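Letters spell out the chain; backbone shape is given numerically. Both lines appear below:
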Amino acid sequence: MNALQEYPDQNGVTRHQVAKQTGIANTTLANAVKETKPLSGQTVKVITAVAQALGKTPGQGLDDLIELDEDNSK
């Protein structure tokens, strides 16, 4: 599973909730969570929106995403 999809899921937040809370387009999020889109290809806008929806700073969100992505790669 894509780390950007898994991260909000683990924290009980849906993609729709991220879009609604942050104003980022749902289609932008849908494209970001495609299996073929690596974490390294994500935009600051998307990572910031996900972190914000989870009550974290963009740096904390990125750190969590990197850790999750590395765990998924094992």
